[in-house]
Design a protein that fits this description.
The structure is a homodimer.
Chain A lengths: L1 E4 L4 H13 L5 E3 L9 H6 L7 E3 L5 E3 L1 H11 L10 H27 L22 H20 L13 H15 L9 H10 L3 H6 L15
Helix pairs in contact in A: 1-3, 1-6, 4-5, 4-6
Chain lengths: ~220, ~220
């Protein structure tokens, strides 16, 4: 197997942190050019033209971080990161989805619609020019706030996002917070439960090792130091 | 169990079509007011304030269509709709995600950012006012086109989206096409594989029975007749 990866991409980090939690070591191939674009060869090689992508030894290409997790969870069930019992599986999925649709997508909207390197690249995976929409910066902030409000309440009675065990719902939660730090938008003080949760998790080996080191333009990210 | 539902919502239809494929019959509760808003009692009852939501007999509330599928797939494994083998599970998930992020979200962006009933409700699940962003109409069209281009190629060699069996990847694909029909944006003629695929699936019992009957303002939807 081989993982097609990009250090900065939060969706790639979802897969890296998952692998390190499981103790899975895979060759990784970074497919980003110095101009911070997926290289042309990759675009022709993988028609969905996004990262992460897991390539199996028979050439099968699995895209989408969630789908890569699903494959790896079948192959490496221990420790379980997507739940064991039906209700647990469903609740982990629901919190993973909220973190994604609200927290990760919210920060991604802020980032892609404001960063000078992403002019005309408002959506991932497109070869067409997609203009930035500055109004999405404000909307992205609403999305993130919405997630933090829910997460703050959830963490009042849970050590991890769902129950007593680290799961993919935690992977996404940590990535939402770190994406915010990279954008200089730390968790507001009105969310002490999220702050203490993050402080407990930030030195976890999988969290540290999967950390994004640089912004797309090469600027180091402070908390990754 | 009880399903909290709204006839028009594509995410609710994802659950209804799934249930009918499995032969699961559940009581449904429609929580939309005549003003096409989630009713206030529901907002207090379910803090995530979205539909669909599956409530278990012990009061557990499972939100997010994907998470409801995950729960039901464990409880009612036959016929499998999320794959059986690891690669099949991953590929169904990946196509389900593309249909969601590009096709369903694309049409939802067009709809929520243009429909007069959704002024100040640009995002679901928020009680705050979220302004419409008209530029998302064009971007939503790009998203849908992107999905259709991929799907057209995939259907050149597959009877269903993944392999030879109906799955949740097909549920989402049919819903993308029907959402487009409701918005008077049918599948363009340049995608004959999608058109013949849809023609084969549109009379499937689960597809017909789960069909949305009316637009949010009460206007009947032609293809639902």
């Amino acid at each position: 197997m081989k993982l097609y990866d990009w250090d900065f991409a939060p969706n790639c980090r979802r897969v890296r942190m998952y692998m390190y939690e499981k103790g899975i070591e895979l060759p990784k191939k970074d497919v980003i050019t110095p101009e911070i674009k997926l290289n042309d060869g990759y675009a022709d090689y993988y028609p969905h033209y996004m990262v992460p992508m897991l390539e199996l030894d028979d050439g099968t290409q699995i895209g989408e971080a969630l789908s890569i997790w699903i494959y790896l969870e079948e192959k490496y069930p221990t420790p379980p990161l997507m739940g064991v019992h039906p209700v647990e599986k469903a609740m982990i999925s629901a919190w993973e989805r909220r973190a994604y649709d609200e927290g990760i997508v919210g920060h991604a909207e802020i980032f892609r619609n404001s960063h000078p390197n992403f002019v005309d690249r408002g959506l991932p995976g497109h070869r067409l020019k997609i203009e930035q929409i500055p109004a999405l910066i404000e909307r992205g902030k609403h999305r993130v706030t919405h997630y933090y409000e829910k997460l703050e309440k959830q963490l009042a009675t849970n050590n991890f996002v769902v129950g007593d065990r680290f799961s993919v719902a935690d992977i996404n939660a940590v990535i939402v917070v770190d994406f915010g730090l990279a954008l200089e938008m730390p968790v507001p003080d009105i969310y002490p439960n999220i702050q203490s949760y993050y402080d407990r998790l930030k030195d976890r080996p999988s969290v540290k090792r999967s950390m994004t080191k640089h912004m797309p333009d090469g600027t180091p990210i402070p908390q990754a130091a």
